[in-house]
Amino acid sequence: MDLRDRVAIVTGGASGIGAATVSLLTAMGSMVASLDLQPSAEAALSIEADVADEDALREAVRRVQEELGLLKLVVLNAGVGSFSPIRSMSVDEWDRVHRVNVRAALIGLRECAEAMSDGGAIVAVTSISAFTPERGMAAYSTSKAALAQLVRVAARELGPNRITVNAVAPGATDTPLFSSTAQLPGYQERAAARAPLGRLGRPIDIAAAIVSLLSLDWVTGQILVADGGLSLYSPIDPMEALEGP
Which entry of 128, 140, 164, 175 is annotated as an active-site residue? Predict the structure, then answer.
């Protein structure tokens, strides 16, 4: 799919992966709207909205089409993090994370798909945490796992409408959301060292994967892992015994 002159929505487009995606799509000639609680400096249209609010999201999609034209590309990127062991996690914390990471994605998927009367492409941003059981990450991991499955179901349902639905699963990526891990001694260094490509991801790395999926007409229902190989790490790798400390 040629992305020039295509109308796009990026949720969470004001910072991190979302901002990098807005920038890259704009550079490729798309007309991009950012939906975020914060304003976007680069988007053609910046709408400040709570994407988990049905009425606000519906009105935002209507406004995008009124001001920019027929919607063709959607990136469901808005998300929040969480770190809490199960035994001390509050239901409020669970609900906070799932409200943004799953509820908002469902609403965005539904409303945007309804607006895509001439087909299009949707990419959601999940995480490798969706399939790695990390302690303290129950709320976040389950929300991202739910999002991954939502993408697969949506791909089956929306295929007849000529809408592709895929997801990108980042690993450790240097974003404002990830910056809170700086308080965990050595965490970021270990993540970078365990990735075969030897560093943390950058927002533009993930944006490039997102845009690649948006441009593919014959790929749907897939989860593209963009983590520099971090999820290939094995804690029982026998070669470590031969390599020494």
Answer: 140
Cβ count within 10 A of residue 10? 32
What does the pLDDT look like over 102-112, one tens digit per residue? 999 999 999 99
The answer to whether residue 140 is catalytic is: yes
User: Which of 3.40.50.720, 3.40.50.1260, 2.40.110.20, 3.30.70.360 would CATH assign to domain 7-227?
Assistant: 3.40.50.720
Angle in degrees, CA 54, 57, 131, rounded to 5: 80
**Does residue 238 or residue 154 have the better pLDDT?**
154
Phi, psi of 80 (to 5 degrees): -130, 155
Helix intervals (H) in the chain: 16-27, 54-67, 91-98, 104-115, 138-158, 187-194, 203-214, 239-243
Helix, strand, coil shares, percent, the chain, to 5? 45, 15, 35
Nearest-angstrom CA–CA distance, 100 and 79: 6
d(CA 167, CA 137): 20
List beta partners, residue 35.
11, 47
Q: What is the pTM of this model?
A: 0.94
User: HEC profile for 170-183?
Assistant: ECCECCCCHHHHHH
Cβ-contact 225, 169 below 8 angstroms: yes
